[in-house]
Amino acid sequence: MRSFTYERPTDLVSAARAVADRPGARFLAGGTNLLDLMKLEIETPTHLVDVQDLGLDAIEPTGEGGLRIGALVTNTALAADRRVRRDYAVLARAILAGASGQLRNKATTAGNLLQRTRCGYFYDTAMPCNKRRPGAGCAAIGGASRQLGVIAVSDACIATFPGDMPIALRLLDAVVETVAGSGERRAIPIAEFHRAWGETPHVETTLRPGELITAVVLPPPLGGRHAYEKVRDRASYAFALVSVAAVIQPDGTGRVAFGGVASKPWRVEEAEALLPQGAAAVTARAFAGATPTAENAFKIPLATRALASIIAQTRGDA
What we know:
Layout: E1 5-7, H1 12-20, E2 25-28, H2 34-39, E3 47-50, E4 59-61, E5 67-70, H3 75-80, H4 82-87, H5 89-96, H6 101-106, H7 109-113, H8 120-123, H9 165-171, E6 175-179, E7 185-189, E8 212-218, E9 225-231, E10 242-248, E11 254-259, H10 269-272, H11 279-286, H12 299-315
Parallel strand pairs: 1-3, 2-3
Antiparallel strand pairs: 4-5, 5-8, 6-7, 6-8, 9-10, 10-11
Protein name: Molybdopterin dehydrogenase
Domain FAD-binding PCMH-type: 1-223
Keywords: FAD, Flavoprotein
């Protein structure tokens, strides 16, 4: 790990300004992804701005009937919150499907949104990777691609977004709140937060330089039955081959989002209108235009079967 400097500010704008004004600076929260990347010298920040004293660890009701989740709320605290378990069960289930208990005790809400891809070529610094070094090329294209993306990928990158919690947040139409070093605040719909890779896969979100996530806001509860199905190569501590988050209403309508298949949490609202016709109709629309490889083409029928399982469970058939 290379040397770096460190500071621990106590107000939001100072923290944002400390990163915005210093090229090579990064925010540090739970560190469950960043520190690993630093040890491998994939991330080489020159300065760390520790945000743990900023008071962003509360879960509070909003005036609109939703919840505001502070950026530093741990995954463990969020999954255990009685309001989340009662009204946003898909979120609690997605969190519990990811990582070990030890990691969930440290991982934060904002950090989970910013988790970087787990593509093996990204982690192997001997291999070319456009995400790690723009313009280097992509060893994953033509390489081992079983875990990689089938849709919203590009000729520059076929990695997938690795998280579980953000799949549920996309399903719930969460909003990401931020503050900049200038004091400007933004509310970013999560549908606009993560980017498709395109030709600049190293730019993963719509955050501006130095912009600090302060909270994630959930709208009022949707009702219905909540489910999160994660299919992986082993039962514990593995990233999703395919995951499906869903809220199904008593009349068979609902919402669906997929993980492990795209550069970002994957939700196609037009496909949700087909839920009463069954899983195959939904995934045919959701994955229209997919470009799988020979190694990962199985992900699309796997997504269909995972969604079919959820539909059966929510109807009481399984």
